[in-house]
Specification:
single chain, alpha/beta, eight-stranded mixed barrel, cyclic-guanylate-specific phosphodiesterase, binds ligand C2E, binds magnesium ion
């Protein structure tokens, strides 16, 4: 088979590998500068309860390089992870979210809101993670019981005993945990029941296709039932229309996040945001 690949093709392959490496190095350089110059911004996407009230937000990072378009996390988080930059970046994200919680706790309208923060594998598996989170809580004075940490199934594949230990230490302080993108990994049900979780997040891919593919619908129903059977909160992400929201609610889901309600937004836009989506009217 190797013989079938001509020289030009091999060279083309090498070039694209080199281009990728160069692009990565450029990104890494840009990210280091961004950390120093504070070019990161947290966007917040509201989460709504079935009755229509906002219960909290998910913090979603954006990168605003000077004079350039906003960069999505999907385009830089992987590089931040492989270069170790996710550690200082992750601390900045947690500190910023905690400062926001403190500012919200000063007003009765916002004092109940929670913030969910995405945690990368490299952060969770770092040996100072628990201490880092606790220091940030102490330093900011943020209420631990309004901070939720989002983990993914893939993060749970390695060092599971250590991860559970860390989760228990943080839970003892009041921090909550959710399992993000649930259903896309290959974690077993025995793993699921061994984790001290509070919330399951139904992955948006299933929600997106639930009315196009009966199998996605079946998965959505199963995840909702599973979460409820285990006494977990279940939140559906990627809810884009009322058909999806209403079906999810019929299946027993009580919390929703998605473009139907609001896109992720910077904090100043958040202050004037109002929910205009009518609650489910079904039986
Ligand atoms: P995620 O944690 O699963 O976040 C949900 C993603 O879905 C967000 O994309 C959000 O903007 C998008 N989304 C929300 N509602 C809808 C909807 O109705 N329709 C569609 N099509 N999309 C919707 P975003 O902000 O680009 O983030 C992508 C991923 O990057 C996140 O997935 C998360 O894994 C990662 N990420 C984002 N912020 C952070 C962070 O602060 N730290 C870490 N470690 N990862 C982050
Ligand atoms: Mg998330
Ligand atoms: Mg998700
Ligand atoms: Mg995702």
């Amino acid at each position: 088979d190797a013989k079938k690949v001509g020289r030009n093709q091999i060279r083309f392959f090498d070039t694209s590998m080199q281009q990728k490496a160069e692009h990565r190095a450029e990104l890494e350089f840009g990210l280091r500068r961004a950390l120093k110059n504070q070019e990161f911004i947290l966007y917040y996407q509201p989460q709504y309860h079935a009755e229509g009230e906002m219960t909290g937000v998910e913090a979603l990072i954006r990168w605003q390089p000077p004079e350039q378009p906003l960069v999505s996390p999907g385009d830089f988080i992987p590089v931040a992870e492989t270069t170790g930059l996710i550690l200082p970046l992750g601390q900045w994200i947690l500190r910023t979210a905690c400062q926001q919680l403190v500012s919200w706790s000063e007003h009765p309208d916002t004092a109940h809101l929670t913030i969910a923060v995405n945690i990368s594998a490299a952060q969770m598996h770092h040996n100072s993670f628990v201490d880092d989170v606790l220091s940030i809580l102490q330093e900011t004075g943020a209420p631990a019981n309004r901070l939720e940490l989002e983990l993914t199934e893939s993060l749970l594949i390695d060092n599971i005993e250590q991860t559970i230990e860390k989760m228990l230490l943080l839970k003892a302080e009041g921090i909550r945990f959710s399992l993000d993108d649930f259903g896309t990994g290959f974690s077993s049900l025995s793993l699921l029941i061994s984790l001290p979780l509070d919330t399951l997040k139904v992955d948006q891919a299933f929600v997106r296709d639930m009315h196009r593919d009966a199998r996605d619908l079946a998965v959505v129903r199963t995840i909702i039932d599973l979460g409820r059977s285990l006494a977990l909160n279940v939140i559906a992400e990627g809810v884009e229309n009322l058909d999806q929201r209403d079906a999810l609610q019929r299946f027993g889901c009580r919390s929703f996040q998605g473009f139907l309600y609001a896109r992720p937004m910077p904090i100043d836009a958040f202050a004037s945001h109002k929910n205009t989506i009518p609650p489910y009217q079904g039986l």
